Amino acid sequence: MNGLTPSADAISKLIQEFSKLPGIGPKSAQRITYHLLRNSDEQAKLLAEAILSLKQKVSLCSTCFNVTESDPCPICRGSGREHTSICIVEQPQDILALEHTGIYKGLYHVLHGAISPTEGIGADNIRIKELLNRLQDSPVEEVILATNPNLEGEQTAMYLSQLIVPLGIKVTRLARGLPFGTELEYADDVTLTRAIEGRQEF
Ligand SMILES: [Zn+2]
Fold first, then answer.
1. Burial, 31: exposed, middle or buried (Cβ in 10 Å; 0-12, 13-18, 19+)?
2. d(CA 51, CA 45)
3. Please, what sign has the CA dihedral across residues 165, 72, 107, 54?
4. pTM value?
């Protein structure tokens, strides 16, 4: 036994859980835990409830696979959106980044990953089949490939263009203004806007 009291066990347990989160090392996990300990019960309760309702209320849109509290999601449902174009992204966070530019008015499709042979992720492991089903008998005239400008993203874009071009749908790729090796969600608005405007046909 290391002599920890039950309350200290609760502390180390929470530190352990925070350490599992992306971008949080042991030091930060410790700091957050002790911060919560000093804070009011009410604030700890709000945080706990927010985490619980995240898992209870948020699911995936059955059309575009974006995260949503209602199915179909507000973008798929939105009457102000152009249903003639679909922008393909890897992760739901990418939609946030693109929506923030305010320039794109079409629909989205979230793949939930990218093809990566080194990590054993093939075309069947991401939402490609669902995309192809969606494109059948649809009014879609343009598919914009907005996968990340890195190796996996490029491979995925290439693979998708080979499947979609034969369907007679125009396929474009975000302009090369985005630095190679980065991720879409971290691109700034100006770069992202230029990339959308300067998209090129495959
Ligand atoms: Zn949707």
1. middle
2. 10
3. negative
4. 0.79
pLDDT tens, 35-78? 999 999 999 999 999 999 999 999 999 999 999 999 999 999 98
Q: How far is the CA of 64 from the centre of ligand 1 (A)?
A: 4
Q: How far does residue 78's CA lie from ligand 1's centre (Å)?
A: 9
DSSP-H helix ranges across the chain? 6-19, 26-38, 41-57, 74-77, 92-101, 128-135, 151-164, 189-197
The string of pLDDT tens digits covering residues 100-133 is 999 999 999 999 999 999 999 999 999 999 999 9
> Contacts from 53-62 at CB under 8 Å and sequence distance 24+?
60/110
The pair of structure tokens assigned to 70 is: 């209602």
DSSP 115-172: -BGGGTB-GGGTTHHHHHHHHTT----EEEE---SSHHHHHHHHHHHHHHGGGT-EEE
68 CA distance to ligand 1 centroid (A)?
A: 8
Q: Dihedral of CA 76/79/80/83: which sign?
A: positive
